[in-house]
């Protein structure tokens, strides 16, 4: 992926992470979403496990291919005592053996299976990188939203404090009943609780990002300009096969190749090559003792080589192994189909949710605009009056109490709009990943 192939940006992320980790007492630094995603991918345990699986798959391919590479074994041995009677083998001070597989159709299938295994592991690594990027991006965007809501809530608390002061004076003057003062105090207490909840959520998100990136907790300050626009895709917008589904398909192909290889081993012959060299010894008269049992003396140097062909005629263990491999291949195929159906269901659910969330975000934005206009109207009436005069039947003039209530309401509508936008962004990111377009967005992210 582009995020891991750009050396300059990669080193910049590493250096920034090292600087923050080495100086935990520093004030929080503004960190871009690109840096957070890069550090999260480098620090992720899931990515490291996927990389280990890829290395294992590469080693498995080398192991299956090396069956055709001759293996060389050397050995040496000396007799301990004088031999009595017939020796079970020829005494040798030095021996060497060369063995390799020369022909095997089933082994070729195993090699093909190992290649599919490498493709599956590579695609699984890409899928893990995408998932980590999705988790980090979602947490980062949510932290940015929560911080904005927290600032707005602090403003609401200030307005509520003024409202309590105003109601205190009006209650003492007998203008408003005590219940109005209690209602203002309740509003202030509710806003305090909301602020505490948002502070807890921000702390949790900061800790989550710290765990993802390896940076000290609380050292990340979001940069809203680093967040690219999330495209509003739909289910019919050129869906692609995700890396996860591709990996599952390659894994199933690998299992099918193994099953074919096991089935071939039941009835197809295999040819192997071997060669042996040995140097005999006459230490403790061992060779003389052995020579007594043969017409000719055993030469001091011996060498033999040849090809061996094995024809499997009847082997129940191989047949059982072939059945086991066939069952595993069938299971892998069913799992691919199941994953595809689950992904299709997820796309359908996200598409339906997006339509609702898009409308909710529009409604919340309109309410926030209406509340803003109402606030401006209240401020204008407080400054200029409502123009109805003071005669009988005239509309009462607004008081500073109305201003604080209007400000509190406007900030609440602003927060509702932020919440709706956050849920919409989360759903869009999830749909991007389900449709296989997450990599495109990540490329845009790193180009930003």
Model description:
- The protein has 448 residues and is of the alpha+beta class.
- It folds into two domains: 2-68 and 110-259 and 324-386 and 395-447, Outer membrane efflux proteins (OEP) (Up-down Bundle); 70-103 and 269-311, no CATH class.
- Helix content is 67%, strand content 10%.
- It is built from eleven helices and six strands.
- It has helices spanning 2-5, 7-22, 33-43, 45-65, 105-172, 178-213, 243-264, 286-291, 316-384, 400-435, 438-447; strands spanning 29-31, 71-75, 92-103, 220-222, 270-280, 301-310.
- A four-stranded antiparallel β-sheet has the order 2-3-5-6, with no helix packed on it.
- Helix 7 runs antiparallel to helix 9.
- The chain is elongated, with a radius of gyration of 38 Å.
- Mean pLDDT is 86; it is low at 1-5 and 21-26.
């Amino acid at each position: 992926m582009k995020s891991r192939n750009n050396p300059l940006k990669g080193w910049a992320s590493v250096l920034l992470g090292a600087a923050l980790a080495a100086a935990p007492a520093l004030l929080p630094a503004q960190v871009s979403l690109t840096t957070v995603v890069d550090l999260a991918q480098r620090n992720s345990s899931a990515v490291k496990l996927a990389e280990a699986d890829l290395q294992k798959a590469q080693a498995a391919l080398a192991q299956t291919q090396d069956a055709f590479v001759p293996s060389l074994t050397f050995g040496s041995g000396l007799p301990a005592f004088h031999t009595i009677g017939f020796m079970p083998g020829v005494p040798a001070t030095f021996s060497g053996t060369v063995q390799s597989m020369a022909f095997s159709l089933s082994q070729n299938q195993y090699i093909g299976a190992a290649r599919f295994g490498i493709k599956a592991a590579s695609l699984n690594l890409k899928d893990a990188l995408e998932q980590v990027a999705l988790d980090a991006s979602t947490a980062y965007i949510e932290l940015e939203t929560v911080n904005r809501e927290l600032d707005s809530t602090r403003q609401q608390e200030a307005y509520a404090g003024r409202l309590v002061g105003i109601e205190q004076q009006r209650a003492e003057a007998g203008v408003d009943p005590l219940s109005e003062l209690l209602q203002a105090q309740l509003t202030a207490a509710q806003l305090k609780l909301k602020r505490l909840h948002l502070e807890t959520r921000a702390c949790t998100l900061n800790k989550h990002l710290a765990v993802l990136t390896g940076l000290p907790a609380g050292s990340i300050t979001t940069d809203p300009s680093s967040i690219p626009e999330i495209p509003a895709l739909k289910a019919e917008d050129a869906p692609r096969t995700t890396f996860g589904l591709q990996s599952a398909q390659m894994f199933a192909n690998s299992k099918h190749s193994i099953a074919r290889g096991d089935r071939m081993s039941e009835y197809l012959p295999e040819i192997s090559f071997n060669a042996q060299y040995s140097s005999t010894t006459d230490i403790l008269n061992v060779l003389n003792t052995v020579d007594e049992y043969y017409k000719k003396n055993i030469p001091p140097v011996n060498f033999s080589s040849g090809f061996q062909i094995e024809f499997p005629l009847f082997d129940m263990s191989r047949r059982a192994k072939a059945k086991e491999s066939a069952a595993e291949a069938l299971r892998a195929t069913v799992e691919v189909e199941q994953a595809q159906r689950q992904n299709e269901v997820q796309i359908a659910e996200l598409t339906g949710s997006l339509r609702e969330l898009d409308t909710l975000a529009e409604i919340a934005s309109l309410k926030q605009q209406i509340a803003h206009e109402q606030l401006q109207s209240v401020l204008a009436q407080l400054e200029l009056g409502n123009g109805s005069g003071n005669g009988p039947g005239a509309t009462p003039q607004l008081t500073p109490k109305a201003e604080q209530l209007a400000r509190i309401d406007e900030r609440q509508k602003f927060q509702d709009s932020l919440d709706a936008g956050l849920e919409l962004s989360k759903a869009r990111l999830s749909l991007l990943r389900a449709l296989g377009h997450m990599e495109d967005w990540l490329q845009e992210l790193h180009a930003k």
